[in-house]
Write the structure tokens for this entry.
Amino acid sequence: MASVDPAGFQQLKEQQYLHDQITVPAELQSNVLVTTLDKAYNWSRRSSMWPLLFGLACCAIEMIATAASRYDLSRFGMEVMRPSPRQSDLMIVSGTVTKKMVPAIVRIYNQMAEPRYVLSMGACATGGGPFKEGYNVVSGIDKYLPVDVYVPGCPPTPEALIFGLMKLHEKVERQSIAKVAWYRKESSGFVPVPILGPDIFDPRQIQLIRENTLGEGAASRSSGGGEVRVMPELLSDDVKQNLEAIRTRYLAKMKQPA
Amino acid sequence: MSDAVAEAPVADAAAAEIDASLPYNNAVPGAVLGRWAEESDGGLIVAADKLIPLMTHLRDKEEYDFLSSVTCVDYSKYGGKLRAGVSERFDTVYHLYSTSKGGGHVKLHVRVPENDTVPSATAVYPGANLQECEVYDLFGINFEGHPNLRRVLLWDGFNGHPMRKDWHEAYYDEDAKPFKSRHPAKGYEFHEDKLPWGKNTTYPEGWDPEDWREPITYVPVSQAPGHDELGELDTESIVVNLGPHHPSTHGVFRMIARIEGETILALEPEMGYLHRNHEKIGERNTWLMNMPYTDRLDYINSMSNNLGLALAVEKLMDIEVPERASYIRIIMAEFTRVINHLWSIGFILNDLGALQTPALYAIEEREMILDLFEEVSGARLMCNYMRFGGVVRDLTPNWIKRALYLVHERLPHTLDELDRLLSGNEIVKARGKGVGYLSPQDLIALSISGPMIRAAGIPYDIRKVDPYCIYDRFEFDVPTLPDGDIYARYYIRLLEARESLKILRQALRDIPGGEVQGLPAFASATIEAGFGTIMGGRGGYSFRPPEGEVYQRIEAPKGELGYFLVSDNKANPYRYHVRAPSYINLNGLGPMSVGYKIADAIVILGAIDIVLGEVDR
Ligand code: SF4
């Protein structure tokens, strides 16, 4: 019996793959691996993480170079760039996010199915980069979307991007199916889509903006006190209600028989 | 009412003293009012109401058939002496060239008081279309008679016209860099922390976001009159939107097409999704700080963008460039052209549906060239290699050998291979021949430049007709093809890449030794030599070119790349405008696509070869 085992099998079994509480019939010992669901789930997600085919600016050129023959992203099971957000797991925000573009990006993000990840590639996507002061430039995609990995550089070299992707893989491997947000009932990754007004505004901040444009705050706005900063998570009641209504409508629709 | 009254005496005065010594005043009486400055390079001040007759005359009688650039300067904060006593706030500037005569330009200035309008040049040069939209968008100048004046780079409802000198954005700090708040000795503050919402936005006082309704941004895609001529097979026409996120738009670009069946009746480009405020930031930067920004214009060809700016500032300041530096510049610019053409061939094929494989073949050699760039400049993509007066550092010892190997062995082989695989390919021919045709006259009228017009049989290459740098020393041909369709646009790039190799061979053979930097002070961008001077406001970072304005164009791989600079003898440019070939070539997208299928529009766009960094700037 022991002769069937490959060398080091016992050790492997003890280390990770076989659960010591489970007995496997002798004739199957070499054919069956018992592991945790998390490991299998994460391993498969990590090994075929399809990015969205989505280039914004100069960084996208380096992203293409990463996917091309020299750096060969297919070593990581990532060469299948999907043009449709529905089929992709990872959004690589590769370039400058402009105000005119950000509603589209948020919409695309909302269309991606969970589990989804966002990698912010380059200085622009991370914090505005060289164009930060520009009137049409968003100072970092994390002002609107949750970001998993930041890759610095202008542009990051393909090596740097690959390093960032490997960091993302590590993150995926640490997740547990029991705890991830997207299987929870109450979770919703929906991000309200920013609106193009006289300048772009985030629906989550409507209350705050009103205070500043209409209320007494209008005067203090230009004085620019650092303390008044409000985190975007603080939704106004209106927005909360609105989101709630959207969610209820959505759930009701889902329950209807086809 | 007051307008009419105020204008009458001015017009009378102009009519009274027509100066016959000024050019064209005999042909179009009263058109030219004077010169921009005494020592001017031919900038003529034109009466607004005579602009169209003068342009017609120049186009029809003087062969100035190519409107290269239209832009505007807001002189409200001008600090120089040349504009003393001029009350009009804006000045629209036109550069005209001749594709048949070659040579230099005729430059027209029209002075525009605030809230006044200018006649639209589209009546004479349809190519003014997009550029006038841009001026309207960024400066708020109204062009009377423009068929479709709209905000192209920003959106409808945006507050103000950002390129005006008195318009400030949320993160505004100072008018010129380096900002005092960034002084190393002072504590650093994040802009985000100064605004309550932590974002780069401002809102007008009294504005209520709850009442805000987004204006319906209607990009007119007119219904063609031929609707019912189709007879019994009549279908209803619908509007199809492609982009801004679409795999074949080469970035964030949007096309709105009206189609009937699959045939395109009308198509409008919509851009601005990558508008990064290059010019606004550029006018705050010191002259040298703009160099790395030019890398990010056409981010496939950073070296030739560098070259354009370097030449423009050198022209403004009269700087001599050492021999060796000029050779190095030409070598870099031509390598860039090879990269660009390989890239665009690959992606034209991608758009034709040959997903990835040809593109992978085409950009394989690109990596080899990028290695060479990385070795001299330290960066693969954003080289930031040229300086005013030369290049930043000399070639590394084995560089020329490696370049020779590439130029003699690998690149010709790659080009031959692509030629063999693609040029005879049945599908490339079927999809390319006769598709996207536009006549040479239309192309010129639409201000289209670069490989696009050479593929329509016009041998117009700035390296030949208006030589810059030291291009006149090399022997090379300007290939042309007669067809003006997609196939020709694909094939011309292959031919041009071969010509580039020819230039490269000569340059690599003849390159002399010596200095690479004519004015070392302007290159002191090293940490040791430069950083102190950045903050202290002296030295290489903050030299002051003499007052004046300059327009320098080069033959970039995508077409005519021009830099228009106005200096008021300060450490930063007063006006910094980029005439981006990709942007202006898009003038042709609509006319070229009409009548073809929607799938052809994708390839037509691909064959224009745009880069969004340059389209939107
Ligand atoms: S980080 Fe640099 S390379 Fe990347 S998009 Fe921004 S400017 Fe371009």
